[in-house]
Design brief:
Length: about 350
């Protein structure tokens, strides 16, 4: 220890080795923390943002999904409910007890518990795989969301997925309950009876709501059959009243024979033609005719036209028949042309083709 005098602050002579004051080198440590804040530019001003980096990445990921189509073609092949059940029963019966159990009662209850657990998993795993493979509606392209609503009705897609998930949870609950019950058997006979009872109960629960699995199969089959729209190819969309000659014009403009795109909610096919000009390919398609009425009164065909105009990057060519022989008066055709139906907030090329019969 170094002692300093009270007068001149010099160290006293205490018989110890004294370090001169000019050789003392004090060290200062600074701890500096950096706090960052994210700002967004809103109307020319910086506004603090509470969004974390992870939330931003998730938002960017979800928005990226909205920019593409083709999710329907990636849907899984759903097995019929009866096939799922028969496969699960067959695989569960093959499960053997754990090796090395000499006691007959213990071996039998081990076998029963393992078979019930295997039966439960063989039923649940396919359902969980289906639920994970079907995309949530909010992650779909707006055009595909519109097709789901037109095909299945508003809310039915989510309802069927919710019913399948509810069935999965019931099978898990009943399966675990009876597997645990069987594992507590005291005799071989009791274990066999509880195994039979558990299999019967699980099968009964699954069969009671197996229709939801078949509904999911129907949805997957229907959506996979939807025509795929190529967003990268420039597309010209012909719009107009019914019977004005849009389909004939598609056949005339197309380089080859137009293909017919069928949608499950209508028996009318949609013509999709291709134009090859200077080694570049363009798409030209007709749309179901639009009538002069409110959106609430439109049928599925007209709603398909609105979905195409609202959500797909297309140029629009309005086709008019001024002779009135199409069934819609020229004035109503002009009103349909002037109304911003399906074109709100979008820049589109608009052309007019007038036919005389």
């Amino acid at each position: 220890m170094i002692l300093f005098s009270a007068t001149n602050k010099l160290p006293r002579n205490t018989g110890m080795n004294v370090i001169p004051v000019w050789k003392l080198y004090p060290t200062l440590c600074f701890c500096k923390t950096v706090q960052t804040t994210t700002y967004e530019v809103v109307n020319g001003s910086y506004v603090p943002s509470t969004q974390t980096k992870q939330e931003k990445e998730m938002k960017d990921k979800s928005s990226a999904k909205l920019d593409t189509v083709g999710a329907f073609q990636k849907l899984p092949m759903v097995m019929p409910s009866v096939d799922i059940l028969h496969s699960a029963l067959r695989k569960a019966k093959r499960v053997l007890p754990t090796k090395g159990i000499a006691n007959i009662a213990k071996r039998e209850r081990n076998r029963g518990a393992k078979q019930l657990d295997a039966l439960m998993k063989e039923l649940v795993v396919p359902l969980r795989t289906y639920l994970e493979s079907f995309p949530k509606k909010k992650y779909l392209h707006p055009y595909e969301r519109s097709l789901i609503e037109l095909t299945l009705g508003d809310g039915n897609y989510e309802e069927v997925l919710g019913n399948v998930d509810a069935l999965r949870k019931k099978v898990v609950s009943v399966g675990k309950e009876h597997a645990s019950f069987c594992a507590k058997s005291l005799t071989k006979r009791e274990a066999e009876e509880r195994l039979t009872e558990g299999v019967k109960k699980i099968e009964e629960v699954f069969n009671h709501e197996a229709q939801v699995v078949d509904d999911l199969l129907h949805i997957a089959k229907t959506l996979r059959a939807m025509p795929v729209v190529d967003l990268e190819t420039p597309t010209l969309c012909l719009v107009g009243a019914p019977n004005v000659g849009k389909s004939s014009l598609v056949r005339t403009l197309s380089t080859g024979k137009p293909e017919v795109c069928n949608y499950p909610f209508t028996t009318r096919g949609i013509l999709m033609g291709h134009i090859i000009l200077n080694y570049q390919t363009f798409q030209v398609t007709d749309t179901p005719g639009l009538l002069k009425r409110s959106d609430e009164d439109r049928n599925n065909l007209e709603k398909l036209t609105l979905a195409v105009l609202s959500h797909l990057p297309t140029a629009i060519l309005y086709v008019h028949d001024l002779s009135g022989e199409c069934g819609t008066s020229p004035s109503d055709q002009v009103l349909c042309f002037c109304s911003p139906v399906g074109c709100k907030g979008k820049d589109k090329m608009v052309g007019n083709l007038y036919g005389t019969g």
